[in-house]
């Protein structure tokens, strides 16, 4: 016999496990909040911008489209060079950083918008002041080294990284993490509720018996407590006593 599950049965399952769902969801949100606020180290980000542009000569009064296209084609190369050991090793040496080249590389993000000659350099660090310092030093070293590396002089620093008065971390984001925890916890709780219902093969009501046997239920056996039994016996004695009085 093919079994079908109606929407009402699904809602009844959720309602029956409502406390379990609420506890799991609340626990997931609470754990996400505790981890975000107290366990994860705040990470700050600082950014600088580099302009890739040819230096005009005295005879050249304006840039041609060919010059701009050449600069655009070099940007991807510059992005790789900027994160190379040739640049980062010198940054570590000049700033006396207690970190490896690989660690510094992973903290850098270099990119540019499509068809843009401006390269954005982002640095993430646990210290906001150090993040700005590294960003400016990478841009400075890159500008100094690129003429020797590629025999060109078309890089200038457009905007230096600045340290704000009250810098705020870019991660973790407690509100976002708690929202994700809520969604994940709710989905896990609902899944667990349906899983428990699927493996629960006990009969709890007359409807369960009627559904299992496909037969109408004619009666049921109730569980009577000791107090209820005492009341029944007392009522029975009173009934007999009244009957005896009427017979007399």
From TrEMBL:
Pfam families xrefs: GNVR (PF13807), Wzz (PF02706)
GO molecular function, one term: protein tyrosine kinase activity
Keywords carried by this UniProt record: Cell membrane, Membrane, Transmembrane, Transmembrane helix
Membrane topology (UniProt): Multi-pass membrane protein
Ranges for domain Tyrosine-protein kinase G-rich: 143-195
Domain Polysaccharide chain length determinant N-terminal positions: 3-95
Cell compartment(s), UniProt: Cell membrane
GO cellular component: plasma membrane
Spans through the membrane: 18-40, 175-196
Family: Belongs to the CpsC/CapA family.
Protein name according to UniProt: Capsular biosynthesis protein
Native source species: Bacillus coahuilensis p1.1.43
């Amino acid at each position: 016999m093919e079994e079908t599950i109606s929407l009402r049965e699904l809602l009844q399952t959720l309602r029956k496990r409502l406390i379990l769902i609420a506890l799991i969801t609340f626990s997931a949100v609470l754990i996400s909040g505790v981890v975000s606020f107290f366990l994860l180290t705040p990470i700050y980000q600082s950014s600088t911008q580099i302009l890739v542009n040819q230096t005009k000569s005295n005879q050249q009064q304006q840039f041609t489209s060919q010059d701009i296209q050449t600069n655009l084609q070099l940007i991807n190369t510059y992005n790789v060079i900027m994160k190379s050991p040739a640049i980062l090793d010198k940054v570590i040496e000049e700033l006396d950083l207690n970190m490896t080249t690989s660690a510094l590389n992973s903290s850098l993000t270099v990119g540019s918008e499509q068809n843009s000659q401006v390269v954005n350099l982002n640095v993430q660090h646990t210290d906001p002041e150090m993040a700005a310092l590294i960003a400016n030093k990478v841009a400075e070293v890159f500008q100094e080294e690129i003429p020797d590396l590629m025999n060109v002089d078309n890089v200038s620093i457009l905007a230096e990284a600045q340290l704000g008065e009250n810098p705020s971390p870019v991660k973790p984001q407690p509100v976002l993490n708690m929202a994700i925890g809520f969604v994940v916890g709710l989905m896990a709780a609902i899944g667990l509720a349906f899983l428990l219902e699927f493996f629960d093969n006990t009969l709890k009501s007359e409807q369960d018996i009627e559904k299992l046997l496909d037969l109408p239920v004619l009666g049921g056996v109730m569980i009577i407590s000791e107090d209820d039994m005492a009341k029944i016996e007392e009522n029975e004695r009173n009934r007999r006593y009244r009957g005896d009085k009427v017979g007399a």
